[in-house]
Protein 1
Amino acid sequence: MPYKDPERKKEWERLHRPQRLARRRELRRNEAAQQASQPETPRVEDGRVNFLFPLIAGGVLAAYAPKFAIGAGGLTLAIAAAYKKDWSWWILGVVTVALGVLFYWIEQSAQKQSQMSRKAQNKNAFCGSGA
């Protein structure tokens, strides 16, 4: 085979150069004709609108289930890092995690407040019935 011997390979390439160049020209011509006959359709996208849908869904998820939103936002950030996604994935993940933490904190403070008010009511009820 010509490629095992460098000298024979050079000789083969020198002898077949016109055929190889003609073949390349033919392939380029065919490719250009095919691209001209099938023009690429322009894609119309409004990136701002497409970005808002997942962001709103993340906010709704955070309001409904904060712990789940924190997990989903973290998973979004992990996917963005692993697959080298664009900035919109990173923003979506950070906002979802932040909203999840915010709603979780609000939920916890509301629970503490209600527990404290129940303790105060129980204390008042206990002191009032003993007198």
Note: The chain is about 85% helix and 0% strand.
Protein 2
Amino acid sequence: MAFDFLKEELTEARYIRTPRDAIGRSGDNIGETFFEHLLVLQQMRFENPTWAQKYAKETLKYMNFTNVRTGATDLHNLASIINNPSKFSGKVDGLPGRFDELAFKRYLRNIINNNYVPGQDRTFLMQMQKNLGIKGGLLGRARRVMADYAKSTPGERTAVTQRMINTFRHDGQFRSDVFKPYSKTAVAAGAIPSKPKGSIAKTALKTAAIAYGGWKLGQSNFLN
């Protein structure tokens, strides 16, 4: 289902805006964060195709994934880090060894052109999970639901959405450019409850302050 109020959501990186934002993160963290963003995009193809097409187009705007760019999407910047392990080796420890850029571009173009091929999506998401070294657990279960989203049950969709929302909140990814539209879509679909106005923002700001303080301390230690 499409939600008109999300058509103009900003699609510009908020989580990884510059190469410095990657300092101190592990390769596993970058890989899992990228995959989480990818799964959200896959789900939004069905729940809000207008937003998904726009986000895929913005992610592919620079035509390649060679560097982190302030004007790019978070998905673009995460992909660029994974796609250039030698360039970011001094900032991120232990990046995954393989990123299939051609398959990723094809996937984005399929979203832009509203070309849905279930078997192709299943293969792409499964291979991407394997290349990133992501085992089972939440992301493995989420991938199985998202890859066959059209065939999933309402209960499966609600459960995976709630878990993805919680993961984004706990990992500080609520600053990501996908979180706000994703959470709004989830509320509109009835997957998560709508909280009183201001409660989510206050919680996010408090968590962000704590996370930012810890990040600055870690960055300072890294640079020194």
Note: The chain has nine helices and no strands.
Protein 3
Amino acid sequence: MKKSLLLFGAVFILAVACLGLGGCGESRSAYAGNYQSMEPFAGKGHVDLELKENGEASWTHLGKTLKLKWRVAEGKIWLYTKEGGLLIVTPSEGGKILSADTTGEWHPGCPPDQCVLFKRVEAEK
């Protein structure tokens, strides 16, 4: 019991360090920039998604902004909320198009009825 608790603690600390330092994963530079949803989200206005090179991000919809952290791993963009939520985003066309799976579960593809497509409007300067 004690050994498994120590192992869990070590894995947890390593995971937090990787997220905090950005040391685990691929380069963010290809995807850093500003994106806008291609269709209105939930039928009510577009979503603006900003991915900063430093791993910070924001999701803005109807004047409300959600702050996120992000990293790139396994060819996907992983967006994390402060509360522990996760969005897995699949880039295509060299990062010009992003497909965000909003189901909260991992899928090999993005379910069409729960997928938000984003188009890059500006690369990070």
Note: Strands lie at 33-37, 47-51, 56-61, 64-73, 76-81, 86-92, 97-101, 115-123.
